Give the backbone structure.
Amino acid sequence: MKRRTFVLGATAAVAAAAVWWARPGDNGAPYDAYFRALNAELKKNGPMRPCLVIDMDRLDRNIDRVATTLRGAGKHYRIVEKSLPSQKLIEYIAARAGTQRLMSFHQPFLNLDAELFPGFDLLMGKPLPVRSAQQFYQQLKGGFDPSRQLQWLIDTPQRLHEYLQLARGLNTRLRANIEIDVGLHRGGVGDNAVLEQMLQTIAAHPQHLEFAGFMGYDAHVGMGVPSILGTAPELLAKAMARYQGYVDFLRSAHAGLWREDLTLNAGGSPSYKLHGAEKLSSEISTGTALLKPTHYDIDTLAEHEPAAFIATPVIKKNGPIQIPALDGKSKLFSWWDPNQRETYFVYGGWWLADYESPKGLQFNEIFGHSANQEIVNASPTVGLGVDDHVFLRPQISESVLLQFGDLVMMRAGKIVDYWPVFNA
Ligand SMILES: Cc1ncc(COP(=O)(O)O)c(C=O)c1O
């Protein structure tokens, strides 16, 4: 053999070995004991369509984590309604955590809250257009008294004037909570000059406006900011220094508006735990941490347990992937990738969610999405059959929880109840 031929042959063999070595491994694994039990229960007693399962044992522990931290810090807990949008779920959390404070973000839900929780204090989590606020009053039913129990969130002097006109028109007094920017930069008051204008307006119209407090949301603490720009405790310290600046200004420039029982709201799921160490805020809003969807797999929520899953039955099990129009040539894919040697089509799909169990399930980009029958590829190791369930974790809880009808409430692996979600 010529030397050149030998070198070429050896190079080709090394290249082939390298390509073979780079082949995807088998990522599949069957259900663990937890999901095996959930699947068995859902197959026996479940709805056999896509459903949102809540693990109440895990939910309980997550509620207790939040309640214990905030109680220990002498703070009130405010439930975030948009992240837990179900009457029974909110009632359950309120009773277990011992709170009657709720944060709302959507006018139709606000009307529901006022009707369903007539004894609660409601704080808006975003400023609503004034016509939307007006519709709240037009649709209000029951004994809820907004002049005592509702805090509108006001972000600008302009909006405050609009709400003042609304109060005049309704011949009532509105409680105004001022949104302050503590570093998230999602709006709200950013300096004392603007705050001064707003406090002056409130102070000048006591029949129509009452100052209820501040709301400073700090989602950037614990999430979304690269740690090189600041650790979560550093970012919280900066946020609370800004918060303190607004409170100091209020107390020095408008002492008449200061009351010990003002609502000084802060928080969010990513930061609630860190708030246990600061003394300024009077209450913390948290919702998503109780269910821990995948976007909340963050350091500050390390102790929290995922408590919400989408479960959907496998409708079809078709063997190695076949791509339309490629037909038999598709074999290349399953030859190359063991995770494409099984193809499932599930009931529904295309949710804001990540595959959870069995391990090693994957979407097929070439085949594409379907909200009717979504494709799921895996290796045969996952061991799924028709009518078994694929489990996903929502990425966020708001909006996703509303997509499946009644929540399937489970305890110790058994279905114990069905809880309707808000419908508005
Ligand atoms: C004003 C405000 N407070 C608190 C929260 C925290 O909600 P969660 O704990 O569900 O993330 C949010 C979420 O968007 C918010 O906008």
Notes: Residues 203 and 256 are 8 Å apart (CA to CA). The domain at 55-296 is CATH 3.20.20.10 (TIM Barrel).
